[in-house]
Write a structure and sequence with these properties.
The chain has 94 residues and is mostly helical. It has one domain (2-84). 52% of the residues lie in helices and 4% in strands. The protein has 5 helices and 2 strands.
């Protein structure tokens, strides 16, 4: 369920409960819960918007490598592409 006022997804995190992510897309239905939890902690942030970006990149990576299931290597690759770029602060700007 989504809280419309916050745009967050209830039950995304695995802390003591289930997750909606395996229901979100078939690629996550067979993914290990530990991998889903890792992705959520690293970048998923409990929002479907970010999970949509991650899923897009995971599917692209799987297609490129000819895989049928997501693995940690593809997940890490997708995370690097889905995250917003980090701002680099120059020394003189500090």
């Amino acid at each position: 369920m989504t809280d419309p006022s916050r745009g967050r997804v209830e039950g995304v995190h695995h802390s003591g409960g289930g997750s909606n992510i395996p229901l979100f897309h078939p690629v996550w239905a067979t993914a290990p819960p530990e991998l889903i939890n890792f992705i959520d902690l690293e970048a998923g942030g409990g929002t479907f918007r970010m999970w949509s970006k991650i899923t897009h990149h995971v599917l692209e990576g799987m297609k490129r490598r000819g895989l049928t299931e997501v693995d940690e290597t593809i997940a890490r690759w997708a995370l690097r592409r889905a995250r917003p770029p980090r701002s680099v602060r120059r020394t003189e700007d500090r």
